[in-house]
Fold:
Amino acid sequence: MKIKYIIKYLIVFIIFNKALFFPSASFSKEPLCGNNTIQFLIDEDVRNTEYNETRNDSGIHFEFDWNKNKRDKIIIKRNKENYPIIRYSLFDTKNFEPSKTAIKKINNKDLSKLKDKEIINLTYLKGETNFELDNGNKVSIKSKPYKFNNFQLADFEILSIQNIDTSKGILEMSFISKFANTRKDLNKTLRGTDYYSDQLLIDICHDARDRNNWPLETVEFDEFKYDADVREGLKNKEILANPVFQITIDDNELRTLRTEKGVGFFRQSFDFRKFPFDTQKLIIRIKTGVNNYTNRNFENNKDIGTLTFISPSPGVFGNLENFLKPEINKLKAWKIPDNGVIIKSKILSDDKFNFYNQKFESVTENILDIEITIERNFQHYVWKIMLPVFLILCVAWYVLWIPTEKYEARLNTSIISLLALIAYNFVFQDDLPKLEYLTDMDWFILLSYVFCCIPVFLSIAFSKFISKNQTRVMKINKMIKIWGGILYLLLNAQIFYIV
Structure:
């Protein structure tokens, strides 16, 4: 009997310890992100870098544009002769210059007479394709296989521009944006299972991002700094109340959807040479974060290239057009002209060192620039700086109308005017940008100083020669007061109006 009790106690002890130290064996496993669909994808997906397309053609892609007449449509950008403009050529960057070269013919077909869809179909041709460019050159390219990804800027809206710090070159702006990436591999994995349903929206948590490959994570804004207190996005380390990375299924198409919003800080390069009548460009740059290669990709080790784009949706153009409205754009020191907001696709080229083969290699990356042209409201500088300086100069110049023999009165008046100009310079100096070069405003003030000093020098000089040759002094004085004023106006015209 004692042996039976010992065996029972031993069995209970083993079961207790197994439940205590190996709870996963006794209880059901908690799904990743608290969602069975995410857990199923992690378990079943091949976890590689998925591309939207696997293509075998000449690697030619055309620039995009927005059709304002049909607001829901992106079209191919064309030149004045209606020939399509190149966005990028994967296999021949020498003859096909991005955003500049236009193609007249493909296999002797005149592209100016073809619709967008017909032109795009010609870019999928295999074998050798013949191109005739707008510069008259004829080029042939043999098709090669490559992987292609085209991320979409699904939404971008500028909520407000809080500050344009011209001294530090920083744009502070509130915005909301969404990026989308079609995932055919995940759609294939889910389709036919109990986890697949239309109008599905699932959050992708931090753990899921670490366990699988999500190509859309590489996209990023080129921000000067990322302040997590006023920004929401993938870079936030803490758990956010609003999800920023999700899976969506709509119309039988599965996408990953990423949200970036809040206050962004973007470094700018300003040119103030025409200040205060200057026009600046604010640039919000979006990078794909992936380099383009002609002979390799991140999915496998085969001799297959890779190309990654980021393209805007029609809604982005519409939102930026709405920002031009005065009731939305509340910039006080600046104004945005008509057609002042554009979207440009650019290719960054750089020589990078490859650690594996110990060689420098030329790589390219596609970026998207949202350019906002702003014109300075110059009235403040004209009425509060330039006009007072001009009036002080007029007082100094007016001494030339005082009789030459009264040189003491002339000298006192001209010196007081010069001192007044110097004193007033301290009043407005904080309104002027401090730069290593002279702006138009600096040239205007410097010129005013020079012409304000002329009456002082004349008064001193005339005091010495007044008793010797009064007639000659009066003649010189008359000539200077007329031609000096004309010269001052001509020099200012040279500064402000002549490029």
